[in-house]
Design goal:
alpha/beta; 2 domains; ten-stranded mixed β-sheet; 34% helix; transmembrane helix
């Protein structure tokens, strides 16, 4: 037999958990009665949605529906399993780094772009490996859930003016390699971790700090603004 894929395993687990929650609600009248009343109030509130009283009925019904579901043992088991799964997943990807080696071409001369999908996309888990890929420069705005991330801007043909790099993550380390001739501004926020900007290093605890290089005061033609948010992890910015 073929092994279930990761998405199939998650789907089956969610189906089993939903079935268990439904059975537990039906077999426990102390949970089922508030749930039933809550569903009725939600329906009644939707029929009177244009009135203030309808909104009140809807809010009360939603609370009476959510509380019994959160009180079931299967729902608590689902939360515990999700936390354990996240920790296992993080332990697997922690040892592997996401590496982005970026090489760009000069921006095009199109007068108008209505919609554009960025080359670099969000990634909750897994690894990036983009090496020697040529694409037009766009400001980077990505979210990374678990794992380490490396972005190499050494081969990048940055346009004159400001270039923005925004990275949001949950757990993991971030490393940015920036060109030696570009002015740098770093706006970093973290719950816990280390921050190293060139030769400066410090420990952070629920902090938000801003660093900028001296080139910003000298009218540098190329400037990189780095904005990073991470819950637990380190940030390192180095010149190459």
């Amino acid at each position: 037999m073929k092994k279930f894929s990761q998405k199939s395993q998650i789907g089956w687990f969610m189906l089993i958990a939903a079935t268990g929650i439904a059975l537990e609600l039906f077999l426990n009248w102390r949970l089922f009665v508030p749930l039933l009343i809550g569903c009725f109030l939600i329906y009644y509130g939707l029929t009177k949605a244009r009135r203030e009283s309808g909104k009140v009925y809807f809010i009360i019904g939603a609370l009476l529906t959510i509380i019994p579901i959160m009180s079931t043992g299967f729902f608590k088991l689902l939360i515990i399993a999700a936390v354990i799964y996240g920790l296992i997943l993080y332990s697997k990807v922690k040892k592997q780094e996401q590496k982005l080696v970026i090489e760009t071409v000069p921006p095009g001369t199109k007068a108008k772009v209505n919609r554009k999908i960025p080359y670099i996309k969000n990634r909750l888990t897994g690894n990036y490996k983009v090496v020697n890929q040529i694409f037009e420069w766009d400001d980077i705005n990505i979210q990374c859930g678990f794992g380490n991330t490396i972005i190499d801007l050494g081969m990048t043909m940055l346009p004159p003016g400001d270039s923005v790099v925004v990275i949001r993550g949950f757990i993991g380390n971030i490393r940015l390699n920036v060109p030696f001739d570009a002015a740098i501004t770093v706006n970093h926020s973290a719950l816990s971790g280390k921050l190293k900007v060139f030769n400066h290093e410090e420990d952070l605890l629920n902090s938000n700090v801003i660093y900028y290089t001296d080139e910003n005061n000298e009218g540098s033609t190329r400037r990189i603004k780095i904005i990073t948010n991470i819950a637990f992890g380190d940030l390192e910015v180095r010149r190459i």
